[in-house]
Amino acid sequence: MTPALEGITVADFTQLKQGPLATQKLAEMGAEVIKIEPVHGEYQRGLRMGGELLEGEGPSFLSFNRSKRSVTLDLKSDEGHNIAMEIVESADVVIENFRPHVMDSLGLGYEDVTEVNPDVVYVSSSSYGPDGPRADEPGQDLLMQSMSGLPSIGGRGGDPPTPAPISVVDLHGAMLNAFHVMTALFHREQTGEGQKVDLNLMDAAIDLQIEEIFLQMNLDKEFERSEEGIAYKYLGAPYGIYETADGHVTISMNPIDDLVDVLDLTIDVEYDSSEAAYENRDQIKREIEAQTREWQTDELLETLLAEDVWVSEVKEYEDMVEDPQVEHNEIICDVEHPTVGEMTTVAPPVSMSKTPPEIKSAPPLLGEHNEEVLSELGYDASEYERLVEEGVMTEAGSTE
Predict the structure, then answer these.
(1) Active-site entry in 12, 74, 92, 170
(2) Domain range annotation of the chain
(3) Which PANTHER family does this one have (predicted)?
(4) pTM of the predicted model over 0.90
């Protein structure tokens, strides 16, 4: 089958999570992604997670950079800049996520690139946008969660603001990047016109909360977090996680009467309207949980699922990967890496009958494709050796 993005070349100047995940998605739909890194490698190559590297490789880097080729360049050198311009000249997409004007200072901004590639799709994804009062401030997922209000709606009532435990803004930003690259490419296919695409993490953080912000801005009500851990600030009981005799289950949006019947509950507060289920949610949760604590998890799940109650077990990752549905969907897979060996990761999460995504290769070693890409640009082996000696590039696979 011909990949959907076969023939599309992406010059990828991104780093960290948001940009690299976006370009990984494009790569696995068939795009040729050339990851252009500084000579010492992008930051996540050396970022320890839980204080650990994986056989000398950054675990976070390994998560977000498969199916790409790596080229190292000193973009501040004349020759490094010239090679980068040769790469972007034939690229369909240029994508970067530096602070505003960094690419301009390197002579690789939108105006510079369109001089040699006028129909390019040029994507800039900054923290706050290209201009404005915060444009030069640092931005990162946790910072964006915080300024957007996200931690204020998580956790229990009385707790400090509680951020999401994963980089949800980066991940949502990555999806926005990939989506708008595709939209711009579709526009170019129709009109022949490239364009500049500006995205930013602050807007991604706010867009992520479209429902919650709408509720807060339009409903004349003061919403409080649940003291007993109802999982969503804007919903009533039973929505949340419940302790069992040997674990936990999640009970989603269900009529409380269903739980009363199945579990033979007696609830001493009103719950027969959505308003009452919200106002009395903490007491309702306490009374439901007093009953679920008497059940073994497997027995409770079997009983509730038989009555079509929306319920699931709360799993650890080690249990999740062995779930029969997870195995059936083949969403967890193994990839062979030249230094790490076999590593377990998450497969592309979609099935397509004509253009399925594919993991083409493991995350690249630093500068692994330097000589290969230079050869495609017309450089010979001796020129590559000279560029390495002069520090314009690094030796393929070097960790220095």
Answers:
(1) 170
(2) 9-208+329-389, 240-320
(3) BLL6097 PROTEIN (PTHR48207:SF4), SUCCINATE--HYDROXYMETHYLGLUTARATE COA-TRANSFERASE (PTHR48207)
(4) yes
